Amino acid sequence: MIKNKLLWLVFITSTNAQAGGFALMTQNASGMGNAYAGAAAEAEDASTIFFNPAGMTYIDGTQMVGAIHLINPSIAFHDKGSLGATGDQGPNAGSLALIPNFYIMTELTPAIKLGLGVSVPFGLTTEYDDHWIGRFQANKSELKTVNINPSIAFKVNDQLSFGLGLSAMRAEATLTRSVNFGLAGEGNVKVEGDDWGFGFNLGAIYQATTDTRIGFAYRSNVKQKLEGKASFIRPALVPNAGAAADGNVIANIDLPETLSASIFSHINAKWDVMADITWTRWSRFQALRILRDNGSTLSVTPENWENTLRYAMGVNYRYSDTVKLRAGLAYDEEANSDAFRSARTPANDRTWLTLGAGWQLSPASTMDIGYAHLFMRNARIDNNQLDSGNGRLIGEFQGSVDILSLQYTHLF
Predict the structure, then answer these.
(1) Which of 171, 237, 290, 409 is a Cys-bridge partner for 298, taking CB atoms 3.0 to 4.6 Å apart?
(2) What's the pLDDT score for residue 360?
(3) What gap in Å lies between CA 101 and CA 121, rounded to an integer?
């Protein structure tokens, strides 16, 4: 497990994911007001390191960006005839979280820029009441990540720029559920694991006209081999042996790649418009398989996730020389389907409505604020695990998310 617990608590806070699957779009506050439309082309500040490192060529000097996001998800389960367990429908499965981002970049030459980003690209937390009706399938599910992303950008000419970054991603996961030991009673199992994985991101920006640019960005998949342990709390009559034995475990998770295409255009002195589409390869996540260190299977959860698309559009309005207003709309497809939905990932397609503003406090500093409300389509579930003693969970999840983002940008 990671040694520096203080760093982990300060910088890595997981939450219910706000994009498809368990990806997080909250990588800056300046883009929040536009629902992150045009993120691979806008290059407004150093946070472009995450969305498209080529955007650093549009920023002069040395710049630092720090952002924080307050995320408040609401997820409620409504039972519709679940079998194999008694209990309540459980309280809100979402939890309030803070997500930070930090970026810094500087010039090596006027045409070559260097940058470093530290961000949280994936995260998930769902936690139910210990006595809820689906406790044999899931109680707590938590995934925390932090990504360290050094980057470089090259300006080839006045029209074309390229960028490249490397990623070192730390992941830590915790899964718990109740265990049905039959006549012996109920127990609990907790599975924990962590690992470092590595990948890269790259991008290009083409200045099509004086006022319009097009951006393309790619983030690679990152393979994580989570190693940790399984710990059981057993009734008195159940021995520490067989399927209920404590021990070391391994779980392989392949965090998906993304491909984005964006456009950003100055319409006139007052208005900007932007749009993009992002593809994510969630089909890599077909099953959650947890193995003991001797190669035997502790558990297998079919997932059968599908690739997703995210569509976004936004506008900027320059209210004055120092104030910029933003608005955005986005639609996120969900990676899991009704047929394979689990209580650990109970989300569905979501629509973003966003507002934001930026204030230039001085020639060297800017403050940005953004707000988003996410409407989530109701998510039906019929997860039949009666054969393994974990019950059949039948019902519907209803949810929404509110996000408030704040960012400070300073030019040195």
Answers:
(1) 290
(2) 96
(3) 10
Average pLDDT of span 296-325: 94
Backbone φ and ψ of 283, nearest 5°: -65, -10
Quote the percentage of the chain above a pLDDT of 90.
73
pLDDT band at 355 (very low <50, low <70, confident <90, very high): very high
Three state DSSP letters for the chain: CCCCHHHHHHHCCCCCCCCCCCECCCCCCCCHHHCCCCHHHHCCCCCHHHHCHHHHHHCCCCEEEEEEEEEEEEEEEEECCCECCCCECCCCCCCCEEEEEEEEEEEEECCEEEEEEEECCEEEEEECCCCECCCCCCCEEEEEEEEEEEEEEEECCCCEEEEEEEEEEEEEEEEEEEEECHHHCEEEEEEEEEEEEEEEEEEEEEECCCCEEEEEEEECCEEEEEEEEEEEECCCCCCCCHHHCCEEEEEEEEECCEEEEEEEEECCCCEEEEEEEEEECHHHCCEEEEEECCCCEEEEEECCCCCEEEEEEEEEEECCCCEEEEEEEEEECCCCCHHHCCCCCCCCCEEEEEEEEEEEEECCEEEEEEEEEEEEEEEEEEEEEHHHCCEEEEEEEEEEEEEEEEEEEEEC
Q: Residue 202: its pLDDT value, please?
A: 97
For residue 74, pLDDT beyond 70: yes
What predicted TM-score, i.e. pTM, was given to this entire model?
A: 0.91
